[in-house]
């Protein structure tokens, strides 16, 4: 670390260029290049200082704080000493010249890319590039205040952005600023304690068991019918279903293991870990119908392998295209929507089959803790929040059933 005291003026040479500053302890060469008046008039110009303080952890750039405008050398020395103390103690905010946008780009590169699930990283990058940087990117990181973040949130609301989207954008910014706070790049997280719009809980839509049977019958004639059969009977996430490998299926113990999931990021399919830590490598038991559907499907896939010969792609996935390549998750949703329309059933999302599976488990009296673990929810409270209304219906049905038994006994 080094520092310098110097004097500078606004005079220009014959070529119109500003004279370089005159160091406090100038060499003969420096004196020859500086403004002549700085050498002859001690009151000409003003004093300043420059410090070389290592590397800014926010951007990886060199820290070089400098300040001009001091009337005397003593004032410049005093300010320099204070600045040096802050730099050496780690309290100096050398990132004060770092813009929010510049920091966010570095944060994405160092803290998000390759360290988050591909779909999550893509979402963070989209919000940073399309929403946060255009609104806050030019502000200095160290000077960002809650009022500015609050205005940003209110502007998103006025622009008609949904509450869920706004909360995700805010979560992205808050995560980045939390990292900045941990690294002492800011004094506090300016996104914390900012009021956010309330998310209206969407009502879960699902079919009655009779409609589910109608769908499975219709889907049975499709090449991927076994996949939809397995979905209804396991409640796997779409990405988990697409990422399932034959090595994850244990026919002897009648179970499968959810180890990875596929997602589409900017048109490309990427493999990543399961959405939640509790869902990673979880075991899901299979009933006889699911086992049977998988066995039949395996025979069909073997026939397709023989038909394609050397051109067959050995992806190892359970459900694939005819040539063995892994399925694109969006393709699964499109096939599902087509089958639903063809069967003239009420329109639902593919993800609603996961809810359907949960409702069947609840109706069968399966404990909530077992359902939560089977679905791979991060906490049992999430399961309760999603399906609490179904639990109330199940409890009501149980009460009515018990009451009817008592009435028959009394008769």
Jot down its keywords:
hpI Integrase, Chain A; 411 residues; single chain; 9 strands; 4-stranded antiparallel sheet; 3-stranded antiparallel sheet; 50% helix; DNA polymerase, domain 1; alpha+beta; elongated; 3 domains
What does this molecule look like?
This protein is an alpha+beta fold. The protein has three domains: 91 residues, no CATH class; 83 residues, Tyrosine recombinase, N-terminal domain (DNA polymerase, domain 1); 139 residues, Intergrase catalytic core (hpI Integrase, Chain A). Helix content is 50%, strand content 10%. Strands 2-1-3-4 form a four-stranded antiparallel beta sheet, covered by helices on one side. Strands 5-6-9 form a three-stranded antiparallel beta sheet.
Secondary structure topology:
Elements: E1 2-8, E2 22-23, H1 28-33, H2 36-40, E3 46-52, E4 66-70, H3 73-89, H4 100-112, H5 118-136, H6 146-158, H7 163-182, H8 209-219, H9 225-234, H10 238-243, E5 249-250, E6 255-258, E7 260-265, E8 268-273, E9 282-285, H11 288-308, H12 329-342, H13 352-363, H14 368-375, H15 380-410
Antiparallel strand pairs: 1-2, 1-3, 3-4, 5-6, 6-9, 7-8
Helix pairs in contact: 4-5, 5-7, 8-9, 9-11, 9-13, 13-15, 14-15
Q: In a nutshell, what does this entry contain?
A:
With 411 residues, the protein is α+β, with helices and mostly antiparallel strands. It has helices at residues 28-33, 36-40, 73-89, 100-112, 118-136, 146-158, 163-182, 209-219, 225-234, 238-243, 288-308, 329-342, 352-363, 368-375, 380-410; strands at residues 2-8, 22-23, 46-52, 66-70, 249-250, 255-258, 260-265, 268-273, 282-285. The chain has 3 domains: 2-92, no CATH class; 100-182, DNA polymerase, domain 1 (Orthogonal Bundle); 209-347, Intergrase catalytic core (hpI Integrase, Chain A), CATH 1.10.443.
């Amino acid at each position: 670390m080094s520092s310098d005291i110097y004097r500078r003026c606004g005079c220009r040479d014959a070529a119109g260029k500003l004279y370089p500053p005159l160091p406090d302890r100038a060499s003969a060469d420096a004196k020859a290049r500086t403004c002549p008046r700085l050498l002859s008039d001690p009151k000409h110009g003003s004093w300043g200082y420059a410090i070389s303080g290592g590397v800014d952890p926010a951007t990886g750039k060199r820290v070089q704080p400098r300040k001009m405008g001091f009337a005397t050398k003593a004032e410049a020395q005093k300010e320099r000493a204070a600045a040096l103390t802050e730099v050496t103690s780690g309290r100096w905010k050398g990132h004060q010249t770092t813009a929010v946008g510049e920091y966010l780009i570095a944060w994405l590169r160092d803290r998000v890319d390759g360290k988050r699930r591909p779909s999550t990283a893509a979402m963070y990058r989209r919000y940073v590039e399309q929403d946060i940087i255009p609104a806050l990117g030019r502000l200095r990181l160290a000077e960002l205040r809650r009022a500015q973040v609050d205005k940003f949130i209110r502007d998103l609301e006025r622009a008609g952005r949904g509450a869920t989207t706004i909360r995700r954008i805010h979560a992205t910014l808050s995560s980045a600023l939390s990292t900045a706070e941990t690294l002492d790049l800011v004094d506090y997280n300016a996104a914390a304690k900012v009021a956010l719009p309330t998310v209206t809980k969407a009502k879960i839509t699902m079919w009655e068991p009779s409609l589910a049977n109608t769908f499975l019958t219709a889907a049975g004639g499709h090449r991927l019918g076994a996949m939809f059969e397995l979905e209804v009977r396991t409640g796997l996430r779409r990405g988990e279903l697409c990422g399932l490998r034959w090595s994850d299926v244990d026919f002897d113990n009648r179970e499968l293991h959810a180890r990875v999931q596929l997602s589409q990021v900017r048109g490309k399919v990427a493999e990543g870990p399961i959405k939640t830590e509790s869902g990673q490598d979880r075991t899901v038991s299979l009933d006889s119908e699911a086992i049977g559907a998988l066995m039949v499907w395996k025979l069909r896939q073997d026939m397709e392998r023989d038909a394609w010969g050397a051109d067959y792609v050995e992806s190892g996935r359970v459900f694939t295209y005819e040539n063995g390549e892994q399925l694109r998750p969006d393709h699964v949703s499109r096939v599902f929507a087509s089958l639903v329309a063809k069967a003239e059933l009420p329109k639902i999302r593919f993800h609603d089959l996961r809810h359907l599976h949960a409702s069947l488990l609840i109706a069968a009296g399966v404990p909530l803790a077992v359902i939560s673990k089977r679905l791979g929810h991060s906490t049992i409270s999430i399961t309760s929040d999603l399906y609490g209304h179904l639990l109330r219906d199940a409890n009501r049905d149980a009460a009515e059933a018990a009451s009817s038994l008592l009435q028959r006994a009394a008769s």
